[in-house]
Amino acid sequence: MNLGVEFCGVQFKNPVFTASGTFNSGREFADVIDLNQIGAVIVKGVSNKPWKGNVTPRIAETYGGMLNAVGLQNPGIDVFIREDIPFLRQYDTKIIVNIVGRTVDEYVEVALKLANADVDMLELNISCPNIKEGGVAFGVDPNMAELVTREVKKVAKQPLIVKLSPNVTDITKIAKAVERGGADGISLINTLIGMKIDIHKRKTVLGRKTGGLSGPIIKPVAIRMVYQVRQVTKLPIIGVGGIMTGEDAIEFMMAGASAISVGTANLLNPRATMKVLDGIENYMKTYNLLDINKIVGIIE
Amino acid sequence: MNLGVEFCGVQFKNPVFTASGTFNSGREFADVIDLNQIGAVIVKGVSNKPWKGNVTPRIAETYGGMLNAVGLQNPGIDVFIREDIPFLRQYDTKIIVNIVGRTVDEYVEVALKLANADVDMLELNISCPNIKEGGVAFGVDPNMAELVTREVKKVAKQPLIVKLSPNVTDITKIAKAVERGGADGISLINTLIGMKIDIHKRKTVLGRKTGGLSGPIIKPVAIRMVYQVRQVTKLPIIGVGGIMTGEDAIEFMMAGASAISVGTANLLNPRATMKVLDGIENYMKTYNLLDINKIVGIIE
Amino acid sequence: MCYNPLNKVKCRVVHNNEIVPNIYDMSIDVGEMVKHINPGQFVNLYVKGGIHLLPRPISICEVNKKEKTIRVIYAVVGEGTKILSSRQKRDSIEVLGPLGKGFEISKGKGNILIVGGGVGTPPLLELAKILKEIYGEKVKLTIVLGFKNDIFLVDEFKNYGDVYIATDSGRQGYKGNVIEMIEDKLLPYIDTIDYLYSCGPTPMLKGLQKFNIKHSIKGEFSLEERMGCGFGACVGCVIPIRNSVNKDSINLTKETMKDNDYIYKKVCKDGPVFDCLEVIF
Amino acid sequence: MCYNPLNKVKCRVVHNNEIVPNIYDMSIDVGEMVKHINPGQFVNLYVKGGIHLLPRPISICEVNKKEKTIRVIYAVVGEGTKILSSRQKRDSIEVLGPLGKGFEISKGKGNILIVGGGVGTPPLLELAKILKEIYGEKVKLTIVLGFKNDIFLVDEFKNYGDVYIATDSGRQGYKGNVIEMIEDKLLPYIDTIDYLYSCGPTPMLKGLQKFNIKHSIKGEFSLEERMGCGFGACVGCVIPIRNSVNKDSINLTKETMKDNDYIYKKVCKDGPVFDCLEVIF
Ligand SMILES: Cc1cc2nc3c(=O)[nH]c(=O)nc-3n(C[C@H](O)[C@H](O)[C@H](O)COP(=O)(O)OP(=O)(O)OC[C@H]3O[C@@H](n4cnc5c(N)ncnc54)[C@H](O)[C@@H]3O)c2cc1C
Ligand SMILES: Cc1cc2nc3c(=O)[nH]c(=O)nc-3n(C[C@H](O)[C@H](O)[C@H](O)COP(=O)(O)OP(=O)(O)OC[C@H]3O[C@@H](n4cnc5c(N)ncnc54)[C@H](O)[C@@H]3O)c2cc1C
Ligand SMILES: Cc1cc2nc3c(=O)[nH]c(=O)nc-3n(C[C@H](O)[C@H](O)[C@H](O)COP(=O)(O)O)c2cc1C
Ligand SMILES: Cc1cc2nc3c(=O)[nH]c(=O)nc-3n(C[C@H](O)[C@H](O)[C@H](O)COP(=O)(O)O)c2cc1C
Ligand code: FES
Ligand code: FES
């Protein structure tokens, strides 16, 4: 049974990755799961300088899902390189660094610092607000998405995945834009934007009012987008959005994802990635599927 | 305790409406709830000619929600005027007609036929694909949305609400476009686009592949959009998306909706509108709220 | 106060047992509902918890008016039925119904052929019982039941008529499907048949429709489709019904039919029982 | 094999009773977990069903090593705790923990002041018990408990020290909040206090911080924040911690603080217990 996947020229032992922001750099999970068993750790978003993130409350529960407005709090690229890479390199798993920024320059600075670092791949999170464009997310405008991809690609020494925001009219336009910009692969989806009101306190639950909706309930939107993007580009896709089980992972792969990321599920159960992996293996056994790559994109 | 609301100059006995497509014209519900107790019946989408709708399966279940690809099957405006208006007029409730079309002319034709009909309001469903524009939904492009609103408004004799699609990058742009087009009010939201794959049969569950996601899980997205649109226009808003309880309804009103529509909940329990109404009354009693209009848009 | 089928009722499970692998036999105390059921109608069962929101439509297999219970027989095929199968005696379950139109009992006189397949068999049991109750000696039931491998309900059907069994695996009765078996074993009898009732998987009904045409048999089919509501509100559960039944139209399929050839009817409200020739497969 | 707090455990509820209106006292058989708990740690309780996905963090109120149970006391405030309150003896419940860092036991010698408010009181019970167990006569506990109206756990605290009660309603004990009561009744004793432990609603802790500064009391607070995971992975549950404790910084609030004034720490992993002066309210 082959679970190995090749993605942007890098070989992964299996297609189960961790979604950025739900796994930090793996430290919290290292005692309870064997990090060697994960295809890749996609680490929490890293910026050029330390980011404080948003005010609290940052978390709200919704029907079958959650909202987060963490605001990409992170200690910055220097601390990441110093502390997290050596930690992760103790394990036989790949490192994918999720990069965040508020300007094109900030993104580029992180990629530059990573150019000589020992990481396997970069994932550009373009759902961040572009402060030079009035706070509109890079990822909702094809031109901005293409530009930031191109500039980062110029300096990147590792394959570059771009992670798209689902809060757009036509996801295929953004996918094609980042392809033009030189992306080597695509991750979909980041969170949907949502809001929750506490009707007793008469105010929003989140300090920042709106937040990112994630969890099993967003899967239908994510599956649709993976399927749509698959029709317009040959770039390989990492599917993410609501994956809780092996069946969910298989669904993403059938829709067109070559690998998948487990997100919110990690928060609900630290062993979620292992559960997903087991589920994939069970599916393969049940249907006597010898190579996981065989089902990628089989839905017409 | 005042539950009455004024909306686009029409007086409604309460803010609980039915969402289009989940209540037909009320016939299926008339034996089990008292239609006189509903603020307004927003009927299933009506087109100029009979529409066959989509192939089956049209329904899929998702985590905490559902997908539908009914495809707006309906017997057309003539049958509607002949059979449904007299039926609904037996009751002391308002009639809001949801209009669908594949071209601007088709929309206009329905509005024209309704100009002399005994209905209280029109709701323009602009989530329909524009066949002259390659099947892109009217509602995702500000220009198309404005145009169809303007043309319908020219012939409409009743106040015109436009119901927006949430599958857009910036809902406020569409809201402002339909305001420019002459809309008297706005409904939000229609369904999100989603997809589900049967991993055992290796095909999409829906015959049409993608469908509209609805149910309690979409509420955070709907609340966010009502809130956003409320910031950019003075047009009154009908909130819709995942309302199952009175608390949900209150949440929409606090976000900025002057009235609300119950959708998927009707399918899950034919008495859902009554449950929502009871819940609103309970909330008002608990907080000694004498006029429901007082909470509309109180979230800053 | 009259009973309203669209009022959700919170009911008690009376028993819920696995009768053959993966097939469960559940009795539910539904109260007044028992007085309003026609054979062939179904109920919506709801899965607790809020993740699985849609109804599970399940045919009523038997009605016990004295005990105020209905019996349903269901296969565990997905998450919803899996959860239903874990319900235990005294657990509560939400039920809506009875829903749909049942079989036309008035047609059930003379020589009646009943054809059931797999979990399509259950509603035919109540039908057989009622036909016998109403028409007594005036009706003769020939009951043909097809299963994959394990058979169920068979002995109960024997109370009402002659029962013939076919299994795909050949484990019991005739090895093959019901149509093969009828053509092989019951052909001489076919001409005497006045009416047919059937419920089962789509391929079986599709085959049976051809068979009915060939042998000029009139009758009705009970069908399935994915449902959003179960009571006519969502227009989700439609099937195409021929605009006219004639030589040309009879070969239409869902794939070949044109807009003028059919109208859509709702399985949940116009059905689940339809004329056996009208349905386009 | 060593115990891993991040392995979700399916546990049995041993009992779950309403002790005063809306407040429940639940015992859970958690097995090996009992050996690894410090006072002030909490567990994640999960609500069955799949709609309420996030953990409900609840402090451990008592550990019974012999019975392998933990006890938690919780208020029904929303949907999740409402569902928890309906769990019955022998029902299963998923538990993760123990989580967070507890109180610093090594500081608990001499004259100790324990201040609890409402559902912040429970973790202080295990603390009091352990302090007495370890330090015996070397520790003297003065325990001040504040409640809205109904009091609970009070008699149990009496086993470990002198207990003073304040209620907002004045129904029992002092009428007023705990700080008013301390200032009013215990002031002479304040100077003798070596250390303070407290847990309760934010306004109480905020007031207590001012009080501590005024009277130069050292101690620690147990805090609450909305959590996404409970074990450090989501960075959701942060609170601002002063970069330095001095005359200028001491008046900072969440609203007035500037980027350089604070760092965020995670309540779930760095806490829930923090130095009582460091926290910015
Ligand atoms: C009128 C009618 C009567 C029925 N009577 C019986 C019966 O007596 N015994 C029995 O075993 N089964 C019966 N079925 C089929 C039964 O409804 C499905 O097997 C069941 O809903 C599957 O639910 P699930 O959650 O296990 O499957 P899932 O696949 O997890 O269900 C997902 C969704 O698809 C729907 N669905 C799945 N399969 C079917 C199907 N075959 N037909 C309609 N909806 C489906 C479910 O209701 C649910 O909304 C009947 C169906 C209909 C329409
Ligand atoms: C470390 C810690 C220890 C706690 N110990 C106790 C205790 O011993 N007894 C007790 O009664 N309560 C305790 N709480 C508060 C308790 O977690 C909440 O009251 C509970 O989660 C509310 O859940 P709900 O579903 O009823 O409320 P809902 O409002 O429906 O919950 C929605 C979401 O908000 C979260 N939430 C709501 N209120 C709080 C809160 N005050 N703090 C943190 N998250 C919240 C819930 O966990 C859930 O994710 C503690 C909180 C923390 C952080
Ligand atoms: C608490 C939290 C923090 C997140 N932080 C990041 C981040 O730093 N960078 C990023 O690209 N995505 C981030 N995401 C988005 C996830 O990686 C993922 O795309 C999204 O949550 C959908 O997947 P899920 O439903 O499996 O969680 C975050 C999500 C959550 C819940
Ligand atoms: C089965 C079904 C049919 C629908 N048909 C229409 C329609 O004809 N016109 C329309 O504007 N919206 C239609 N909708 C969208 C609903 O009116 C509503 O906007 C959406 O479902 C979100 O609300 P909910 O989550 O409460 O269902 C339909 C929804 C469903 C589930
Ligand atoms: S299931 Fe809704 S109309 Fe039949
Ligand atoms: S709750 Fe996730 S980091 Fe604390």
Strand content of chain A: 15-25%
What does the average pLDDT of chain C come to? 95
CATH topology of the largest domain in chain C: Rossmann fold
Overall residue-averaged pLDDT value of chain A: 97
**CATH C-level of chain A:** Alpha Beta
Bound molecules: flavin-adenine dinucleotide, flavin mononucleotide, FE2/S2 (inorganic) cluster
Helix percentage of chain C: 10-25%
Question: Widest sheet of chain A: strand order?
Answer: 3-4-7-8-11-12-17-18
Q: Whole-Å distance between the termini of chain A?
A: 25 Å
What does the model show?
The complex is a heterotetramer, with 2 copies of chain A (300 residues) and 2 copies of chain C (281 residues). Chain A has helices at 77-89, 104-115, 142-155, 171-181, 219-232, 246-255, 264-268, 272-286, and strands at residues 5-7, 10-12, 16-18, 40-42, 59-62, 65-68, 94-99, 121-125, 129-130, 136-137, 160-163, 185-188, 192-195, 197-198, 203-204, 210-214, 237-240, 259-262. In chain A, the strands form 5 sheets. Chain A has an 8-stranded parallel β-barrel, surrounded by 7 helices. Chain A has a single domain, classed as TIM Barrel (Alpha-Beta Barrel). The model of chain A has no long low-confidence stretch (mean pLDDT 97). Chain A has 8 helices and 18 strands. Chain A has 300 residues and is an alpha/beta fold. Chain A is globular, with a radius of gyration of 18 Å. In chain A, helix 3 packs parallel to helix 4, helix 4 crosses helix 5 (219-232) and helix 5 (219-232) packs parallel to helix 6. In chain A, 62% of the residues are buried. With 281 residues, chain C is an alpha/beta fold. Chain C folds into 2 domains: 9-99, Translation factors (Elongation Factor Tu (Ef-tu), domain 3, Beta Barrel); 105-275, Rossmann fold, CATH 3.40.50. In chain C, the strands form 3 sheets. Chain C has a 7-stranded antiparallel beta sheet. Chain C has a 7-stranded mixed beta sheet with strand order 11-10-9-8-12-13-16, with helices on both faces. The longest helix of chain C is centred in the middle third of the chain and has 14 residues, at 122-135. In chain C, 47% of the residues are buried. Chains in contact: A-B, A-D, B-C, C-D. The interface between A and B is large, with 42 and 42 residues. The structure holds flavin-adenine dinucleotide (FAD) (2 copies), flavin mononucleotide (2 copies) and FE2/S2 (inorganic) cluster (FES) (2 copies). One FE2/S2 (inorganic) cluster is lined by residues 227-230, 232-237, 266, 268 of chain C.
